[in-house]
Task: structure prediction
Amino acid sequence: MAKILIVDDDEDIRELLMYNLRKEGHEVSCAENGLVALKKIESDIPDLIILDVMMPQMDGIEFCDHVKADPTKQNIIICFLTARNEDYSQIAGLESGGDDYVPKPIKPKVLISRINALLRRNKLNEVKVDSKAFVIDRERYLVVKNGKEIKLPRKEFELLSFLASRPNAVFKRGVILDTVWGSEVIVGDRTIDVHIRKLREKIGDEYISTIKGVGYKFNL
Result:
C-alpha cells in the first residue's frame, strides 16, 4: 500500500483514478490544482503524485519544480498524466523532476501497472549504506564522505543509490538503465558512462568498479 495524491482539475478523472487505486489497497487523496496540492503535502507527504500538466492557478510543471526544490520532498515519485503528449511537454515534465510521463487517455489497469512499477523501482533505491568514511542516506537524499556532504544531481544520486543497494554485486548495464532511467525514457549506454564518470569525480574512483562487457559494481 502506498499513499497517493491525484492532482487534476477534471473531477471525473480524479474520481475514476481514486476508485481504482483504492481498490488496489492504496491510500488516495485528491487536489484540483497545484496550489491546493502544495498545501496538502505540507502536512501529509505522499509516496507518489499523479499530476496533470494543464491546470488553473498552478500548472503541473510549476508544481513539480516547487516539490523537487524542497529537500524534504525530493523523494516523492511524480507521474505526469496528461493530454499534452508533445515531445517538448514530455521533456519539460521529465526535466522538472518527473519520474514518468503518461499520455491520456489511458486504461486504469495500465496506469496502475505503471504506478506499481514506479513504486517498486523507488523501493529498490531506499537504502542506507554506512562505513567509517562513506554514508548514503536515501531517506534524506544525502551523501556524506569523511563527514563532508557531497551534492549530487537527482540521476547521479539514484544511480549511486541503486549500485549501493547491493554492495559488491555486479549490475548489468541493461538493468541499470531500466531501473534508474526506466523503459519509457530512451537513453544510450553512453549515458551511464557519463554519470559514472561524474560520480567518480565527486566520491572517488575506489567506490565504483567497471566490469568490462558487463556493467558496474559498488565496492564496500
